[in-house]
Specification:
alpha+beta, EC 2.7.4.16 (chains A, B), 60s Ribosomal Protein L30, Chain: A, nucleotide-binding (chains A, B), 4-stranded mixed β-sheet, 328 residues, 11 helices, 13 strands, PurM-like_C_sf (chains A, B), globular, homodimer, Phosphoribosyl-aminoimidazole Synthetase, Chain A, domain 2, transferase (chains A, B), 25% strand, 34% helix, thiamine biosynthesis (chains A, B)
C-alpha cells in the first residue's frame, strides 16, 4: 500500500519451491491451497512481540527461528505434518540489514520441514511477528490433551531447563561468565520442533502437549483436560551436563527443568500396553525420551524428590515463579 | 502463560455456535478442522496496528469490525465462502472495558457470516490485531486478479470515496462540522464485506480485487497481473450524496472515489457475453454495481473525465497521493 511497506515482493515472494497443493501463494487477495483427502487440518497461531518474547536487539536469524519453531512445535504436539504458513510482520521501518538474515533463517527452517509461505502482510508499527501454521493429521487421529488415562506413563522428549538458563544469560549479562552461557543463550532461540517424534507418536500416545509454559504448567493442562492426576519424579527429569554446570548443581538444574518455558519439547502420555513399542517407533527420529512419572486418579499433581513428596506450598511457589517472558 | 495474558478462556472461548467442520477449536495446541471435499481453501492474513490502521482511542467495536471485515473482504474478492478465523491479539494490559465491546462486535460479524473463531493468541505488547481467515472456493474456480481480457467491462460494487472522507474526519477535527461527518467516520470503520456478491460472481467475473489500496492502485493490480490495459471513466464512478455534500462538489467526490483506500468494495471485470447476466446474478444480494470502464490492450490505464484524457502526470500525482494510513 502507499504509505505502508510492501516488503512481500522483495523478501518473501519466490523464495521457495512450490508445493503441489499450493495453487496460489503470495500476489492475490488470498492464497489458494488444496487440502488432502481423508485428512484434517491442524492450525495454530502464535505471536512474538519485541520486548515481550525477544529483546529488540536479538539476532534476527534467532528471532525468525524461534517464531517458526514455536509454531511448528504446536503442530508437532498434535502429531501433524506441516504444510503451510502465513506471516504477518510488523516493523517500525523497513530494515534490510534485519530482514535479510531474518528471511534466510525463516526459509531455512521452513524448507527443512517442506513448509511453504502462502501469505503475508507487512505493516508499519512496533516489531512483532505473527505466524499461522497449518498441517495435516489423519481424519481419525490426533494427539490431543484430553486422552490421558490412569496408569499411562508420562514422558518428555529431549532435555529440559536450558531455555530458562538461556533467558538468564539474555537478561543478566553477569551470567555470561558461567559455563556454557553462549550455548544456552542460543538454545533459548534455536529449539528443534519435534515434528518427527509427534508423527511417530500418533498411534501410541494418549495425550500430548508441547512445553511452552513450563513442564509443571503444561503437564497440568493435560491433567485438567483429561480429568486425571499424576505423580512426577523430579529426579528423573532429563537435564544436560551443560545446564548442570551453568546452574552449579544437579538439584538446581532439576528446578529449571520443572519450570522452564519455551522449551518446545513434547510431554506425552503412553498406555502401559504401548510402552515397549516406544523406543522402536521413535528410533528413526533420533529423539531422546525419558519417563518422568505416571498418570493416576484424582486431580492432583504430586511431585516426588528422592521419594519424598514436595509440599503443595512449594509446588505452588514453583508454579508461580514459573516462566517469565522478557520484561520491556 | 504465567507472566502473559490468558484472555482466551474469558473472552474468546465458547462464544459461538460450533461449526460441524470444526472438531477442536480453542484449548489445545492446535485447532482441528475438516476441509470439505472438492473444494480449495482460500486463506488471507491481515494486521491492524494501533497508530497505523486505527487511532489508539478508536471505538473498540469499530476496530473489531474493521479487522474482521477487511479480512473477509479478501475472501469476497476470491468468491470464497468464509469458514474459520484465527486471532492474534496484542495489548499493553488486559482492559475489560475495551475487550468486551471489541469481542461483542467481532462475534456479531463472525456469526453473521457463520465464521467460527478456531484459534487465538493473546500477548502483551503494543495494541495490534492479526487475523487469518479461511474460506472455500470450488476446485476449478476462484476470482483471481490475472483473468481480465481485452474487451471485458470493469465494474465496482457500492459507492466509493467515503472511507477517505471518514479518515479526514478522524484525523482532523475541523472536518467534523462538514455534512455527514459522523456517518462518514463510521463508514470508514464499518464496511460491508461483499461476500454474497463475490460468490455470485464466481461464474461471471474474469478477474476481481477488493479495494483496499484505492481504486487506481487496485485496478492496476488487475491490469498488471492480467497483462492488459484499461480505460476508466471518472464521471462514471459511483459516489453518494453524503460524500458529495462532504466534499463540497461532485468533482471533488470523484477524486476521492479514485484514490480512497480501505473501501472494501469489489472491483471486477466481466466479459461482454456475461454482461447482461450480471444484474440477475446479483439481484438477491442487494448489491449496487456500476460499470466504470473497459479492459483494452496495452499496459496503460487511461483515465477519462468529460471524455478528455487525464494527463499521465496528473494520474501519477493521484496515485502518489493515494491512500495514506494513520500516521503515528
Amino acid at each position: 500500500m502507499p504509505g505502508e511497506f510492501n516488503l512481500i515482493e522483495k523478501y518473501l515472494a519466490n523464495r521457495q519451491n512450490q508445493r503441489k497443493d499450493v495453487d496460489l501463494a503470495l500476489g492475490d487477495d488470498c492464497a489458494l491451497v488444496q487440502p488432502p483427502e481423508n485428512a484434517r487440518i491442524a492450525i495454530s497461531t502464535d505471536t512474538l512481540v519485541a520486548g515481550t518474547h525477544f529483546l529488540p536487539d536479538a539476532k534476527p536469524e534467532w528471532v525468525a527461528h524461534k517464531a517458526l519453531a514455536s509454531n511448528l512445535s504446536d503442530l508437532a504436539a498434535m502429531g501433524a505434518t506441516p504444510a503451510w504458513v502465513s506471516m504477518a510482520l510488523t516493523m517500525p521501518e523497513p530494515d534490510e540489514s534485519w530482514l535479510e538474515p531474518f528471511c534466510d533463517s525463516f526459509f531455512a527452517l521452513a524448507d527443512y520441514y517442506s513448509v511453504q509461505l502462502i501469505g503475508g502482510d507487512t505493516t508499519k508499527g512496533p516489531l512483532s511477528i505473527t505466524l499461522t501454521v497449518q498441517g495435516f493429521v489423519p481424519r481419525d487421529r490426533a494427539l490431543c490433551r484430553d486422552g490421558a488415562k490412569v496408569g499411562d506413563w508420562i514422558y518428555v522428549t529431549g532435555n529440559l531447563g536450558e531455555s530458562k538458563a538461556g533467558l538468564d544469560v539474555i537478561l543478566d549479562q553477569s551470567n555470561r561468565d558461567k559455563p556454557f552461557a553462549d550455548k544456552l543463550e542460543q538454545r533459548h532461540y534455536m529449539s528443534t520442533p519435534r515434528i518427527l517424534a509427534g508423527q511417530s507418536l500418533l498411534n501410541l500416545a494418549s495425550a500430548c502437549v508441547d512445553i511452552s509454559d513450563g513442564l509443571l504448567a503444561d503437564l497440568s493442562h493435560i491433567l485438567h483436560r483429561s480429568d486425571v492426576g499424576a505423580v512426577l519424579n523430579i529426579d528423573a527429569l532429563p537435564v544436560s551436563e551443560a545446564l548442570t554446570a551453568f546452574c552449579g548443581s544437579h538439584e538446581q538444574a532439576l528446578k529449571y527443568a520443572l519450570t522452564s518455558g519455551e522449551e518446545y519439547e513434547l510431554c506425552f502420555t503412553v498406555p502401559e500396553a504401548y510402552k515397549n513399542m516406544l523406543e522402536g517407533a521413535l528410533a528413526h527420529t533420533g529423539t531422546q525420551i525419558t519417563c518422568i512419572g505416571q498418570i493416576r486418579s484424582g486431580n492432583t499433581l504430586e511431585l516426588l524428590e528422592d521419594g519424598e513428596k514436595i509440599s503443595d506450598d512449594q509446588q505452588l511457589r514453583w508454579l508461580a515463579e514459573g516462566y517469565e517472558h522478557f520484561k520491556g
